[in-house]
Structures are given as structure tokens and as C-alpha cells.
Amino acid sequence: MLGRMGNGYPSLTHLRKGGPFEIIAPIETLMNRLKSVLIVLTFLLSSLSGCIGEDSESDSDETPILLSRSGSVEHNYCKLASGQGSSNSSEGCPTDDETIEDYWSAITNLTVINQSVGKGIIIHSDSGGTMAGTCSSGAIWGWNIRPDNGDNYNTASHTRGDIGLLPYAGEECVLVYHYMGFENKTMFWESYLRNC
Questions:
Q1: Which among 8, 146, 158, 163 could disulfide-bond with 141, CB atoms 3.0 to 4.6 Å apart, if both were Cys?
Q2: Three-state DSSP string of 55-69
């Protein structure tokens, strides 16, 4: 039974059954969960809005441009000219990945995107290919061309996946979504990205 104070309200000393700090533990747990939710929401909202670091007071009327590109292509890896590629290549088909030419023969460009100065490309999803770029600064990244003879095509390393802001944002670059394979086949691909 609750005790009553002189003013008719229940006495708090009879309502509380535990120590004074027992209520603190559930609040700390709730705050930690709320903090995690806020971090996830902040990340999601920032990725759905403009590019990271975008100036909100820009005097430009430009808004990010969403691009959805997809298709299918007949990939043919037998594109070597006479005398190109490794010595054991036959009928234009590389049989080894000995030279840079062997790799170029095995690459089919799916789509090309021009990135202008001060802009960046964010990929939201992709399937069937890999992004690579060549920039005006001399940076060449993403081609994954590593022939056995030790030649190197890339001048810059790109070790993470394609999802997110691509390397060299802000520079003038030609980005190529491509497929590389040492077999002939029909390739289906898609890329959903934003130019901002």
C-alpha cells in the first residue's frame, strides 16, 4: 500500500524498491542503442545527399545527376593482331596472361563516364564489371593488368571495391566500366551511380 504525504500525493520513499543507481543501467543501454541508430542514420542521410564535403552554399544551380546504365555485350577476348601478345597466342586469342596486350585483348569496355574538374562519381551498385580510370594528373587505376612478364600498367593503386566515392574525385578523369575475362561469353551488366 502506498503511503500518503500530507498533501495527498503518494510518498516516493514507498514507491522506490531498489538503490538509487539501479535506474541508470537501463538508461545507459538505451543511450548506447540510440547513439548507434543516430550514427547509422547520419551515414545514410549523408550518402543520399550530395558528395562528402559538398559546399551547401554553392552559387551553382547544379544538382547531383543520377545515372543508371545497363546492358549486355558479347565479350570476345580474341582481339590480338598478328605479332601481338605472348608467343603462344593463336588466332588472336591469348592463351596466357604474359603481356599487357594479352590483357587488353581480354577487356571489353561496357560504358565510359567523363568526370570533370571539381566533380566526383559515387557508385551505389554495380554488377558484371569493374571500374577503372585514367586521370589528367597521370593517375591510372583499377585496370588490374598484371602480366607475368612484370610490366605494369597502373600508376596508382586502388585496393577497395567500386561502391562509394571513386578515387581522384575532383580531377578530370575518364572512367571506364569494363569486363575482363579470358573466355568468350555474353555479359550482362549494370551500374547505378551519381555524378556530383
A1: 158
A2: CCCCCCCCCCEEEEE
Cell of 51: 558528395
Residues 33 and 105 in one domain: no
Domain count, the chain: 2
Task: Check if the beta carbon of residue 64 is closer than 8 Å to that of residue 196.
Answer: yes
Q: What is the pLDDT of residues 46-66, one digit of tens each?
A: 444 445 444 444 444 556 677
Phi, psi of 195, rounded to the nearest 5 degrees: -105, 115
**At 48, which amino acid appears?**
L
Rounded Cα gap, residues 143 and 141, in angstroms: 6
Closest alpha carbon to 113 in 169, 33, 160: 169
Q: Is the pTM of this model over 0.70?
A: no
Within-domain flag for 5: no
Residue 113: which CATH number?
2.60.120
For residue 192, the surrounding DSSP H or E stretch is strand 185-195
Instruction: Give residue 72's domain range.
Output: 65-195
C-alpha cell at 167: 578515387
